[in-house]
Each structure stands twice: as structure tokens, then as C-alpha cells.
């Protein structure tokens, strides 16, 4: 017997894996990362940089650059996300108006910009100017009459269909991942799942372009959710430029968490709300360092958008409002009622939308995404055009519903009967009786509300970029505005009632209907997404008023309570489960009394666990095991008789290691012995070179005993982000529990289909 290290002096060659080789430590598509290993690798990298920084000035400078690279990435994300959001806002404004007419002086001007530049615009007719012409005026020189209306109606539908068809075609051909909101997938990616291409450059480009098209088409969707996806694509692009992030999937996810905050910051003009949204809603691992960097990225993004000033009002959003009237305690009751409405709407929407999306996935409907988009767009345009509240863009609708009625407002919602003797300041107009315009607006809003509720169910989830924030807010704002007008008129006509007597005197400005619209918007958005803290902060950043936090909190909490009574899942969690993503939600509770032995594989009657031995298998044996199974990794034991656990080897790294060994090390053949020990085994003379694979062996795999409660195992998987956990008894290997096994078991315990978990 001779030691293999003595053969031809090849001892050094056997240890070639002590140096890293290409692709080691990377993951395959649709697999989960190992958070513990990524954390350990980053610690080792940081320790190496720190020790080298003492050797020379150049190494010290490199360590400083490494430390600052995180802030540089945040700066770049903020700049690009803010720029893209500004460009999207400007393009949407122009293309939305393009459906109704064109500016003669410069066709790239929107209606509002066109009339700004006109010297013939009067204040009373500020929406009409000679430079802006509707299509009927331009084509047949008629602005009024049936023929002009029909022509404008027809061209409105044609433009909408053109935009929608172009959007769905671009998504289908160039970037299938650019469809949807993106937030369910972002949540899954941040939890450690790999979806290659979802945050790629093509997805970024196509999502940005098609987002403009679909919002301009008039479909019942928003751009706010997809902007989070766009910002995360920016984060992924810039993190790939720095090896600190590109080679470590755990560190990359810290960047993506901050990018999500920047996305919400530019979507709503709410930097603090964006940070809280990332923390509350999308992030899985959110250390304090990520909180600071998220804040910086959100700040830079908001500053960039403010510099572009896409709405021309020095604000970051179209529907910024300021109210001048305080709210009163008696108004909490209608605010809470709006919260109940928001919770019920959220439940209705989630159940109906998930049922429709499941039908789309399981029937022939899913085979015709282009036809579905065209049909929904046609129905939306045909029904939306006759109603002025559905014809305009949803952001403009929300802006009008939020607005307080001042003396200069020309909206139908502000058509009150004025007292000719009124001599009050402009911003303190007393409550007045509703005029005919208000009553017309009320029934138009009621029809628009029903239409929005129904059409949004079918629109969200189609193969185009589609956000849910704005349609949900629109539903709540319409309901809230109608309730607000109702309370206002009740207070005006019955100011002697006991509930109004103390705070609403005749001639006073008591009720602000716009505030009710804002509270309703918050309630409906909360009912659908189940956000609470971040939602309230986003809404008060929108309004610039701190005194309305209590109504917003009351509505948000009520809507969450009501919606949670019918089901704990928000819309994003529901879509994660529908798509079968391996997402362990921190909010879910596991209360069943099962043990690790009930869940581990192999079960009774199944084939024994596939394992590697530490020094008795050949290269051919390992390759055969890999070929015949599809497991992501294999436990390594002393021998198949003792089954004493040594460690765990990943499938991908085994394949790469053997491939590299065959290329770089002479003498490695199919019957070479593979060993995972520090010293090579004793082999007969003239044996082929053994192959040492100790470097790729995880010597400290996470283990539990067979009597560990599953409640503890689920908690371990959640908090440590494990891929798999080995089950032992007295050091002897019994089985393995993977993340997929945990998700299947949880689904089974909840009386759901365990096979709905599709990915690893």
C-alpha cells in the first residue's frame, strides 16, 4: 500500500481546488441561495481585504474603495431610477393626451403644456386654447356635434388599442418577465430565490417603454408597482459592476432592498414611505446598514425626480394636495366606515382576481395573451370614454378627487350654490348647498366606481406591466369623495343635529370631501396590499399634512382588520402562492404539532437517502449518482454502514469540481477515488490519482434531531434562510428536509394542494 501523495510527486496537483475555480459558489436558475454560506463568504472576503490593507498604500486605497462602493451603487440607483421615473411621467402625460388631440405648435407637448405656451389662453377657458386641437377639429374641422363626438370616440379607442397591442407585443417578443407588477417576484427574489433574467437589462428597457404605453392606453392599472421592478433592475445592473455584489447573492439582495425603496420614493414622491415600504412589504433580510443605504437611495431618487419636475408643479406627484380645515372627532365614524369598505373591497378583489388568474393559467385563455389584452383594452376604452371620470388618466382622476374646492376650481365636483354676500378668504369657503353639477358628478362617480371595481379584476395579471396602487386608490377615492359630499350636505342641511351642533356652525367650513377621498384611497390600498405603517407615511407625504395621520391610521388599521378576517394573504402573497414560488412568509404562523421525522425524506417505504462516502467512491460513482438523481446536494457520510455525518456537498459544485479536475489535473479518470478527508486514503500500487474535494464540502451543515418540533424547524428556515436541513440522531444521518418539503407540509396542514409548490 502506498500513499497517493507519493505518486509522481503529484501531491500539490491533488489540492488544486484550494484555489477557487470559475462558477463555484454560484446557483442555477429557479434555485434558492444559501444565506449562511453567502454571509460566511462575505465575512472571509472582508477579513482578507482588512488584512491586506495594512500591507501597502495601494491595498489601503482599495479597501476604502470597497467600503465606499455600497454608497456609490446607491447614488447611481437613485440617479437612474429618478431619471427613468421623470421620463415615464412626461411620456405618459403626452401620450394620454394624444388619444384626444394634438398640439399644433409642437406635437410633443401635452394639452397642459400646449396651453401654457399659448398667449390666447384665458383663465376661464384655461383648458381650451387654439393651439390644442381635438382630432375632430383637425380632421373634419368640427369641435361639436354628433359626428365630431363619434370621430373622437373612434380615434380614442384606436389609439388605446394601438398602445396596448404594441406593449403586449414588445413584452411577448423581447422580455416576457416585464409583465405584471413585479412586486411578488421581487419579494421572492429578496427571500433568496434565483430568477435569471427577471432583473436583466432587456427587462429594464422593455418594462420602461411598455409601462408608458399601457398607462397611456387608459387601462385600469398604474405605474407605481412596476416602478419598483424598474428600480430593482437598475439595482441589479449597478451591483453587477462591483465584484463585492456581483459575486455574492446575499449582498446583492441588500442592494435590491434599497432599490425597492428608491422605486416607491419616485412613484409616490415619498422617500421615507419608500424605505418603510421596503422594510414592511418586500424585504426578507433588512440589516441596519441597508436601512441607511435605502434612505440615501430614496433621497437621491426623489431629488433627481424633483430636478426634472415632470408635473410642472414643483411636486413629485400629480395629486399633491393641502387642506386648510381640521378634522373633528365625529368624523372618525365615516372614516372607519371607509376602512370597512376598503377591507371588503380588498377581499373581493383578491378572491376574484386570483380566481380569474387561476382560470387563465389552467385553461386555453392563457394561450392567447395578445387577444386578451386587446379585448380588455377595447372594453375599457368603449365604456370609459362617455364618462369624464373614467376617460381621463387615473392619476388625474385621483388628483381631482383629492382636491379641496377653492374659489378658482372649475370642476363639476365644485359646482356649489354660492352665497352672493360671501366675503370670506379664498381658502376658507363655508359649506354650501350642492348644485346640479355636484349631483351629476355623484352619479357619474358611482358608475365609474362600479366600472373600476369590475375592470381592475380582469386587468391586473395580464401579460403587460400592471400596477395596482393607483386603481386601488382610485376606487377608494371615488367612494370617499361621495361619502364626503354626503357628510358635507348632511352637516349643512342639519347643522342643528347633536353630532354637528358642537363643531359645525352655519357659515363654517366644516367638512372637506377631499380628505374623505384621501382616507378612502388609503383604506382600499391597505385592504388589497395589507400595508399599514408604510401606507400611512406614504399618504401623509402625498398631502404634506401631519394632522391627518389619525384618520389615515384609523382607516388603514380598520381595512386590515376587516380584510384579515376573511384571509391573511395580501394580493402579492396570493400571487406568490398562485405561481408556486418557494416563499416562506414571516407573517405566517405554524401552530401544528408535527415533528421533523414526519416531514423528512426518505419516508417509510421510500428508497434510502442518496449519500456520498468520505473516501470510498470513484469519480464514476459520483457522476452516476448525479446523473440518476436531480437533488441539489448530497450528504457526505463516513461509510454507508455507519452513516455518521461528515458534511454536505452541493450538486452544482460537484459537477464543476469534477469537470475542472479532468481539465486541469493529469491522471484523474473515471476510477479515480474521490475523497473528502484532509489526508488521502491508502490505495493499492498503480492506482489512478485520487481526487480531493474537501474544499467544496460544507463541514457545518445545519442539523436537527428527528424529534425537533416542525414549528422550530419552520422558524429556523425562515430566520436563517436555509435551503436544506439534515436530520440526525446521535450523529447518525436519518434524512433531509428541504425548503420545498417545509412549504409542502405547510400547504398540507392548511388543506391546500402540496404540489402547488413548483420550484426548488
TrEMBL record:
Protein name, per record: Chloride channel protein
InterPro entries in the cross-refs: CBS_dom (IPR000644), CBS_dom_sf (IPR046342), Cl-channel_core (IPR014743), Cl_channel-4 (IPR002246), ClC (IPR001807)
Membrane-topology descriptor: Multi-pass membrane protein
Entry superkingdom: Eukaryota
Assigned keywords, A-Z: Antiport, ATP-binding, CBS domain, Chloride, Endosome, Ion transport, Membrane, Nucleotide-binding, Repeat, Transmembrane, Transmembrane helix, Transport
GO molecular function, one term: antiporter activity
CBS domain boundaries: 600-664, 697-755
Compartmental location: Endosome membrane; Membrane
Transmembrane segments: 68-92, 153-175, 195-215, 227-243, 255-279, 332-356, 368-385, 441-461, 468-487, 515-540
Keyword Ion transport part of the UniProt annotation: yes
Gene Ontology CC annotations of this record: early endosome; endosome membrane; Golgi apparatus; plasma membrane; synaptic vesicle
The family this protein is said to belong to: Belongs to the chloride channel (TC 2.A.49) family.
Coiled-coil zones: none
Pfam families (UniProt xref): CBS, Voltage_CLC
